[in-house]
Amino acid sequence: MTTLGALLSQLTAQLKMADIEMPLLDARLLVGLALGQDRQVYAHEDMVLDADTMARLDAMLARRLAGVPISRIRGWREFWSMRFDLSPDCLDPRPDSETLVAAALEQKKHQPTAPLIMDYGTGSGCLLLAILSEWHEASGIGLDKSPDAITTATANARYHQLNKRARYVVSDWCAAIKKDMKADIIISNPPYIPTNDIKALKSEVRDYDPPLALDGGSDGYAAWRVILPKISARLKPEGMALVEIGKGQDCSVIALAQDVGLICHQQWRDLSGIIRVLGLIKMQ
Known about the structure:
This protein is of the alpha/beta class.
């Protein structure tokens, strides 16, 4: 019978042959999931798995080898050290998006004590909820046109006991909320990948993230042309919009923002040194 240690070696080799980026980590996570644990397995390498556990492991391994991300297999992703359930209509959060959370938290010293935050295209709700988890006086509204995403975001808010300060509304951007409602902070991670570039993405992204959250139109700026005027209309005079952009898109997004009365006040770089977040304010 194969011990856990030997099994991990076999799994790692199989995943490596399939060009999985972190084969050992994924092997440990898969074994943990097969054992009913939401974490990777380190110890007990002399343990032998029973038949039922092996059957679960084999099924999950087949999915991973087929390109299904670990987060989709287990149904959740860790982001900002918080757990967020995912559904098919939710973008799988990326570490680079934590740049936006950090940028928002920097605004504590510049914004009202109890700001209202709007999240355009909230998905799983991870951005808004991560911010609210550390900005205890703030409240927020998450907006998404997908009812499935709104259901997931609402469940995530309850899980983190933030549902009294975060509410979620099915809305095509901000269309479903009162026209006179304005925000101190607006956040958004809109689709910004050019349509023809999507086919070149890793299969884990291309095949399992919702197209609605990826496809930015022929040039990658279709969503920006729609939401920037809405941001300008909904942002309070002293407020700030924090938006995530794609690599090399800063100049074009800044130009589009200027066309609707917004200027770039600050920029933030991600872990790779790429300009990832723009801080937009209203022209005075």
